[in-house]
Every structure is written in C-alpha cells, then in structure tokens.
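Q: Convert this sequence to structure tokens.
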Amino acid sequence: MTEASEKESKGGLPFWLEFPLLVIVALGVAILIKTFLVQAFWIPSGSMIPTLEINDRVLVNKLEYRFDDPERGDVVVFESPYGDHESEELLEAIGRTITESLGIRTAAVPDDFIKRVIAAGGQTVEIADNRVLVDGVVIAEPYLPNGVQMQDMEPVVIPDAELWVMGDNRNHSSDSRVFGTIPRDEVVGRAFVIMWPIPRAGGL
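A:
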C-alpha cells in the first residue's frame, strides 16, 4: 500500500485536495491578520526621508489605536485624503485585500498616506521662524533632515477627533499644510518597524 493510499484509508484527505485547502486556510489567516492586527506597507515617496526611504516596507500595528489615541511623534498610516475608498467594486475590494495581505502594492485605489502626528484635537499648531509650535511651545523634532525650510503658518486650531500630520521631509511633503487635518477614525494604524530592506530594518 502506498503512503498516499494508506493516508486515505485512515480517513485523511488526498494531497491534491489537502494542498489547496491548506492554501485557502493560510490565505484566510493572512487576511484576518491584515484586517485586524498587522499589515505591511510600501513607501512610495520621499516625504518621510530620512526616517523612511523610498521603497522601504514597514509593518503597521492596526490594533493599537483601538485602545489608545495617536500621540505626537507617532508615524501613522491613514486613508488618502484624496481617495474614494467606497467607490471600489466588491471583487476589486476582495482582490486588493488579498494582495495587500501578501504585502503586494496595488493601484486599485489611491495609496494610503504615511506621516507623523504633530498635534491632536483641541491643540493649536503654527509655524514661525522655521519651527513648529504646538499650543505656543516649540516642539523638538530630532527626526528632521538638515536644510528643512518651512513657510510661516498662522495658528490653526485642530478640531476634536482630528489630527494634524506632517512629513519629516518638510520640503517635499504633501501633508496637513496642504490637505488640512485628517479624521481620527481614518487612521489605519501606527508604523512601528522597518522590515525591508534588511540593512535598514529596525523600530520606528
């Protein structure tokens, strides 16, 4: 009796049926993890240089902000302020979920954005003399690259349940200075580690 037939005689599934079932289960687990726990994101632009370089891949904790609010300094991923995520067809949404669960970038909808939290609801943010002030106090920003130049900006009061976000590469970042505040509930999660490329791997 062959190994395959012996397995079948003991009530096991034949390999040709077991293998696709294992693939489906593995894919289902990956989708669940991507949906509720951790997701990989690809960095498409230089708006977060030097913290994040173009083509870096980061892992995003999607569970953290279910219990805590984003804090100043957190690097967060959020839905594109220019995108219409509700316009996807069902099959497109399923396909995007599957590919993203495998860490593959798609162009089905506008990319999510990744920026750093500067201020939250109820706070006031302004820019003066090339420095960012929150509630009238200059904030420390050791993550900024050399040579950053920022135009002065009048004080802006952040609405409740909103966030003010900015890229670290201030000279080349489309952020809250352009599109305004972002809703707290559109934050996907906090980027907490660079996983690729290997030489740059480490926590954020």
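Residues 15-36 form the longest helix (22 residues).
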